[in-house]
Amino acid sequence: MSAQSPTEVFYHLMDLSVSDKEVYLKKLKSLQPELFKQVSPLLAVNKESEQFTELLGFHAHQATSIELDLTNTLIHKYHITHELGRGGMGIVYAASRADKTFEQDLAIKFIQPALTHVLGKKSLFDEAQLLAHLNHPYIAKVFDGGVYEGSVYIVMERVEGQTLCQYLASTPLTQNKKLNLFKDICLAIEHAHQNQILHADLKPENILIDANTSPKILDFNLTQKVSQSSKSKHTLLTAYSKAYASPEQMTGDYLTQQSDVYSLGKILSLLFPIEKPTSDIAHITDKAIQHQIKDRYSTVAEMRLDIESLLACRPISQKAHLPFYTAKMLFCRRPVQCALSCLLLLSGTTLSSMLIYQNQQLAQEKQIAENMMYEVTSLLFHAKGSDSAQMSVNSMLELTRRRILSNPNIPKDIKQKMLLAMLTPTPEKQVLKRNCTEGCTTP
């Protein structure tokens, strides 16, 4: 055997069959006992992990087929009435207080005995105790817990309602109603995260919509803390729904808040299955379900704020740097004010343009008039003392007309006005002669 590190030997062993692994280890122990000692702890942890995974996988798979019927059973101070459902981790029954001191509609979840044995009662109770600390209107409340015939049970608030999928199928919702519903779900998960609790199994079946159309989050994954402290890569293989689980959850890596962000993104895509890739909802969904954790929203709160921005017609975080988009959202948010502002701006611009144009016209006409006065004055000045002095008025006008026509600085419309004024005939003066004898006036 060539010199190898303990890690290299460990990964090499992972690729071998059981028989080949035994042969390799015997040879390693005899030839390199020191290296064998370093590899042994790694093998022990891996073996424990594999056994844990096998047990989880087997019992979760068999959960729905286990013959367990606790209907009409009295368990401590609770009276079991009927089964509500069963899943990978256990069975849920409807129950009420047997002592009649409180009238409560309860749900009791019994964890499979084999899972209780593998995970440990203390770990399950510790996790249930954390859930009992949650106090949010959109999270089903955990009241109590205990052990019955080897099964840990957890007493919860019973919620009467439809699953999210059933609710969407039976109730037509506007975009804003869907967004408000999703915002409430985010608020519930955000509250759990603030208490250092992940859901780790978010899916439509674990979201009930009650009679008040409010969501209730159920079935937090009770194995999440155990799996994170066991340093195993495979302890969460059965504790999730594949359609809504994050990539790191499916590969058995440690979970973070962004694992729940991913599941929320999948739920958002369920609420809005047909969205244009350029829409704001599509942008929010795509960011939440990025494969790489670093590319997702860092917290549920960030995602919720974008949903609230969308409801308020404000720019979402990913597009806030786009000026045209920001202006569009402002117009959607305040259409009347924006329309009036645009109208005032347009009116002011138009009025300013007209005033500027008229000022330019007046200045131009003033300049032309000054030039023409100069032309006429110059003509009269040069006509004195020459043969041109006998020039008639008509000749003077004709000469002026020619100068106007030949002046390139005079606009055509001004030329036309000036020429029209020059063509207007001047009324002839009447000559009055007094006849002293007749006292009459003749032209």
UniProtKB/TrEMBL annotation:
Q: Where does the chain cross the membrane?
A: none
Molecular function in Gene Ontology: protein serine/threonine kinase activity
What EC number(s) does its UniProt record assign? Answer: 2.7.11.1
Key words, A-Z:
ATP-binding, Kinase, Nucleotide-binding, Transferase
Every Protein kinase domain range:
78-331
**Residue positions binding ATP:** K109
- Under which name does UniProt file this protein? Serine/threonine-protein kinase
Q: What lineage does UniProt assign to this protein's organism?
A: Bacteria, Pseudomonadati, Pseudomonadota, Gammaproteobacteria, Vibrionales
